[in-house]
Amino acid sequence: MTDKIEKGRAGESFDDFLKDQGTYEETTEVAVKRVLAFQLAEAMKDQGISKVEMAKRLDTSRSQLNRLLDPDHDGVTLGILARAAKAVGRGIRLELT
Q1: Residue range 44-65, pLDDT digits in tens
Q2: What is the value of pTM for the model shown?
Q3: CA pseudo-torsion sign 61, 66, 69, 70
Q4: Are 64 and 75 in contact (CB under 8 A)?
Q5: Which fold has domain 16-87?
Q6: What is the 8-class DSSP label of residue 79?
Q7: What does the alpha-carbon distance between residue 29 and residue 44 come to, in Å, rounded to a whole number?
Q8: Is 59 left (phi over 0), alpha (psi -120 to 50) or beta?
Q9: pLDDT-derived band of residue 91, with 50, 70 and 90 as boundaries?
Q10: pLDDT in the model for residue 2
Q11: Is it the case that residue 9 has pLDDT exceeding 60?
Q12: At what angle do helices 78-87 and 24-47 cross, to 10 degrees?
């Protein structure tokens, strides 16, 4: 075992690391989708909304809803996200950074 401490740039953020690796945009997109899917599923659970009921509220199929709630499925439109948020009494807030 060694007592040497690896020297790096102090204060480098994780965002900077991802940018250096060339994966910042992709990683951010995946993270946002996962968070939104989680938040929708939690709102449904908290309110006792079944997948069948949620699909009815969205006027869509349960398989479409499953894709919306799948954190790894990236083919979700802003429109369906906004409708899903409204169906659980929530909203969507976006910003350009």
Answers
A1: 999 999 999 999 999 999 999 9
A2: 0.76
A3: negative
A4: no
A5: 434 Repressor (Amino-terminal Domain) (1.10.260)
A6: H
A7: 23
A8: left
A9: very high
A10: 59
A11: no
A12: 30
Q: Which two tokens stand for residue 4?
A: 């040497």
**How far does CA 52 lie from the centroid of its chain?**
22
Distance of alpha carbon 71 from alpha carbon 94, whole angstroms: 19
Q: Give the DSSP per-residue string, 2-54.
A: --------TT--HHHHHHHHT-HHHHHHHHHHHHHHHHHHHHHHHHT--HHHH
**10 Å Cβ neighbour count for 81?**
17
Helix/strand/coil for 92: coil
Boundaries of every domain in the chain? 16-87
Q: Say how many residues make up the chain.
A: 97
Distance of CA 84 to the CA centre of its chain: 13
Q: Which of 40, 23, 47 is nearest to 76 (CA)?
A: 40
